[in-house]
Amino acid sequence: MNTKITAPLEWRKSSYSGGNGQCVEFAAPDSSVVAVRDSKDPSGPSLSFSSEAWTSFVAGIGAGAFDTGR
Known about the structure:
Shape: globular
Largest sheet: 4 strands, antiparallel
Number of helices: 1
Domain DUF397: 9-61
Helix content: 10-25%
Distance between the termini: 30 Å
Pfam families: DUF397
Strand order of the largest sheet: 1-2-3-4
InterPro entries: DUF397 (IPR007278)
Mean pLDDT: 85
Low-confidence stretches: none
Protein name: DUF397 domain-containing protein
Number of strands: 4
């Protein structure tokens, strides 16, 4: 999705994130979009997705769709 987000973002991490700094942070400025960034580079770029795409991605994670067997 190519949406320019102009509102200030409140970044959050999963409650499952450890303290190793290798986390993904997300922000939801409104109900239609979710922004994602690398927590190691908070001033770096972010990606934005529709809320529907983000919900599908999170559901896939929960279902094990992205497990690599490691």
